[in-house]
Structure formats: C-alpha cells, structure tokens
Amino acid sequence: MLLTRASSINRALDEIGDRWCLLILQEAFWGGSTFGELLAATGASRGVLSDRLKWLQGIDCLRRRDGRYRLTRKALDLYDTALMAMAWERRYYPVHAARDFTLRHRRCGQPFSPVLACDSCAGPVDGRAVSYSPGPGATTDERPVKTRRRSTLPASAVPGSRNVYRHLVTLVGDRWTANVIALAFHGIARFDDFHRELPVATNTLADRLRLLEDAGVLAAQAYQRRPRRFEYRLTDKGWDLFPFFQTLLHWGDRWCDRDGLGPPMVLRHDPCGQRLYSRVRCDQCGEPLAAWDVALSFAGERVPAVAGAESPAAAE
After folding, report:
1. Which one, of 121, 77, 106, 119, lies nearest residue 284 by Cα?
2. 8 Å CB contact between 49 and 38
3. Which of 24, 168, 256, 282 is the most buried (most CB within 10 A)?
C-alpha cells in the first residue's frame, strides 16, 4: 500500500476508472444488460468482462438478476460524468453523421448539448476559474500499489457504433494517466512534483506524460537547458476535460467517503465567489439533466438511455 493525499477523484478512479469498467457502465447506460450484449459492445475478452462485472457488483454499481446486470443508484449518479465524456468526445473527435448521436431532453423536447453549470450563479464552469482549499476530509488515503496494466489497444479497437466516448475511455481508463490530468488542474507541472504526489515508478510516470503529450492534452515546455527539463501544461483540450473530472469528484464525494469526514477538498467558483456545486444542464432550457429525462438515438435509431429505465424507481 502507498499513502497519498486524500482525493475524491482518486477514490472514484480506484473504483470505476479502469477502461473496461467505464465501457461496461457506458453500455449499461445505453441498454446493454446481458453478458453477451456487454461482450459484443465492449470488445473485452470473456475473462476480463467476467472479472470487471464481479468487481462492479462488489462495489454496488451493478446487480445481477434474471441473467441481466442492472444499474444501481450509485451507478446512475455517474450519468453526469457520461454526459460530459460525450460532450468532450464530440468536440475533439467528430464522427460521420451516419455514426453520430442525438440527445433530446424530454422535458423541453429539444435536442441539446450538455453543459456543466455552477448552481449558485448558473454560469458555465471553467477549470481555470476554480479555486481549491482543504476540506474536512483532508487526510491521507492508503492505495494499493498493484494495479491493472494499462490497455494498449487503440480507440479504434473498441467495437460498436454506440460507443460515443471511446477516445476518452482509452485516454483516462488507466489510474495513473487520469491522476496526472487531475493533478495538472491544480497547477502541478514538473516531473518531480507529479512524482511526489503520485509515487509510481519513474518509467511509468514518464510513459503517462508522453501519452498525454501525444494526445494533445499536455504540452511540454522546457524550463531548464542543462540538464534539459520540462514543464507539462494543460492545453485547451486538456482543460476541456475539467467538467468530466468535476462530475467524477462530486460522485467520489458522495459515494467514496471512506471515513465519513466529508470532502477532502472544497472548490470555489471564482466568478461568483461561492462554493462550487455544479450540475450538468440542458443548453436549451437550462434545467438539470437526469438519465431518465434523456432520449438518446444513433443515426435515428432510438435506444434506452438507462437500461430500459424511465424513472429513478427502476434503478436497483
């Protein structure tokens, strides 16, 4: 085990941040619920899928009944995170119209794009305009040293036309890669500082920094010539991942509070000066979104947004 600063994002990533877990939950949101459906949609091997399904049941994100895997309330609370993943993917990896998707808000009846907004001022949330301070749960966490190896399969290897954030999952579906991005939001930029906060092997850290640089999420800037050393700063593409991580942090605050002390970190929205509580909203009517209020269709083919559920009462 290793000790790290307590973080709701880290706790959330340790539970569901694995690539295959993210793909399974995504497909469950779109209606996949049997082993065979999930196997075909995710591209996982039978052994990997079986392992991750057992894991997701163990952390109470899925429950199996009558041969089908059902989302729990805990898993449904990740729907905001899924919407922000879809928004980021669409912005940076547009697809042909024949493979595109449409989101329609049942309450206002309009096609929409999801946006993350501050509850206090209703303004959009930009990670560059957020301040941080320690919260009541600012302690330390014990985290397992051993972790699943990062999948080297490219995003193109993920099957299915309904896979709407395959690039994001490929990028952040590894604990250490996602942790590096989360730390970059706090202004950490140098190798030694990343390593101090994230005590992994130096070759692993170097690999993740290179991966994020190649993906255009981080940009390396030399700050020392001899020996040559770099700072790794978020690009616009990297900053646009903030809403995804912000919703993940909220989920971790609610569902991964191991000691019951409260959030390890308090966020403040600089434009309004208020503590940041944010929700994903419809960009047409401004109302907050719930999974059962969203109709999803792919190239005109409508699919259930939450495994056939039309209301929260349908969740396990």
Report:
1. 106
2. yes
3. 24
* Strand partners for 218: 234
Q: Among the listed ranges 56-60, 199-203, 232-236, which one has the minimum average pLDDT value?
A: 199-203
Give pTM, 2 decimals. Answer: 0.90
CA distance linking residue 316 with residue 28, whole number of Å: 13
Strand, helix or coil at 111?
strand
315 — pLDDT class (breaks 50, 70, 90): low
Segment 192-205, tens digit of pLDDT: 999 999 878 999 99
pLDDT of residue 200: 86
CA distance from start to end of the chain: 33
Helices and strands (H, E) in the chain, number of each type = 12, 14
Q: Which two tokens stand for residue 177?
A: 């890669």
Dihedral angle of Cα 303, 306, 311, 316, to the nearest 10 degrees: 150
Longest dimension (CA), the chain: 64
Cβ(162)–Cβ(297) below 8 Å: no
d(CA 180, CA 84): 19
Q: 42 with 20: CB under 8 angstroms?
A: yes
CB burial readout 298-314, b (16+ within 10 A) else e:
beeeeebbbbebeeeee
Tokens standing for 246?
């912000």
189 phi-psi bin (left φ>0, alpha ψ -120 to 50, beta other): alpha
Residue count of the chain: 316
Please, where are the H alpha helices in 173-276? 175-184, 191-197, 202-214, 236-239, 242-255
Identity of residue 255: W
Query: Does 145 have pLDDT greater than 80?
Result: no
Residue 36: count of CB within 10 angstroms of its CB: 10
Q: How confident is the model at residue 309 (pLDDT cuts 50, 70, 90)?
A: very low
The pLDDT confidence band at residue 308, using thresholds 50, 70 and 90, is very low
